[in-house]
Amino acid sequence: MDFDARLTVIAAARGFTPDPAQRAAATALAELERRLRRRPRRWSPGVYLHGPVGRGKTFLADAFHAAMDVARLRMSFHEFFDTLHDTTFRLGSADAAIEHHVKGLRLLVFDEFQVDDPGDAALLTRLLRVLRERRISLVATSNHHPRDLLPNPLYHHLFLPGIALIKECTTVVEVHGPHDYRAKDAPLGRFAGGYTYDDKPLWTPQPEEHERTRLPCGGGRTLDALAVRGREAWFDFAELCERPLSARDYLDLAERFDTWVISGVRPARSADGWQRFAHLIDILYDRDLALYLVADRPLPELLRDSPTGTERTASRLSLLARTSDVSSSSLR
To answer: Residue 312's closest CA among 278, 275, 271, 265?
Structure first.
């Protein structure tokens, strides 16, 4: 059974039928699957899936990754680069760090491929060259066509070599189906939690003063949690998102806690604060963790009043808004 047929089975188990855009993407992935299984090993250009939020790009990439039996790695894009920066610091060389992370791979799968930082653009270009030289196939999902990466006109020219490599090393496929499945009644994963505001009833008891817990972060820093209850943690939005925490800090916390409650949620005071919030949502979503938000206003107003782009974050938070009537027994 090739990937195209396997996708039909997986989708049926989840209660839906792939739309034409998903079918076209599955056909490109099925071709990559056939090439990766060939002997002797040959260069197999990957697949770059792009399109609006909620169209099933992550679902397709995850299903493809799970179906393959070659040496492979699947990570969210910002998680990989955060790890790559750490390894570069430890080994003293970006080239050595890249080699460390891709050695022995046949397939690298990136979810939420995005380029906003010129420094990351240069490092990504080096990574893409290594993938081509090592004959490692890339599958990536993104909300952006390759030509729209690193959109800042002051820096866009710096990533033109990287854009050329993406087009050389992948088949670019648009996934632009008619539905945002996250905004509809699509099957939900464990990420579904809840969203409340205006002092509406909560799903878990409010934290008490004696429950405050100081948690270690990287670089000798600490983070104050309002409560830690086994694998459940309650945080204040300002403490979590408006301090200079990194994606690595959030990744470490995601390993410790399965259920998150964040209170005091409001529009961040800076674009950096909102970007941290967006990164945190990506990390929790990627790990299918439960998230409960306690905000000062309805979700549409929160997104409207926030300082930067919200499409992907809005789509993911819509899963929470759809399940806001859960009871406290839903908390794990």
So the answer is: 278
pLDDT of residue 321: 62
pLDDT for the residue numbered 200:
64
Cα separation, 317 vs 306, whole angstroms: 14
Burial of 320 (0-12, 13-18, 19+ CB in 10 A): buried
Edge-to-edge strands, sheet with 194-197: 194-197, 290-295, 259-265, 232-236, 227-229
Write down the residue that tokens 């990766």 correspond to.
36
The two three-digit tokens of residue 142, written as one number: 């993104």
Q: What pTM does this model have?
A: 0.73
Backbone φ, ψ for residue 203 (5° rounding): -95, -10
> What integer pLDDT is reported at residue 114 of this predicted model?
86
Q: Which residues contact 86 (CB under 8 A, 6 or more apart)?
A: 248
Give the chain's residues under pLDDT 50. Answer: 187-190, 325-332
Question: Angle CA(25)–CA(58)–CA(47) in degrees, nearest 5?
Answer: 40
Q: What is the pLDDT of residues 241-259, one digit of tens each?
A: 999 888 888 988 998 998 9
Q: Which domains does the chain have, with CATH numbers?
A: 3-174 (3.40.50.300), 194-325 (3.40.50)
Query: Does the CA dihedral 150-156-157-163 come out positive or negative?
Result: positive
Q: What is the pLDDT of residue 199?
A: 66
DSSP 287: T
3-state helix, strand, coil split of the chain in percent (to 5) is 45, 20, 35
Q: Distance between CA 316 and CA 289 in Å, rounded?
A: 12
CA 60, CA 83: separation in Å to the nearest integer? 24
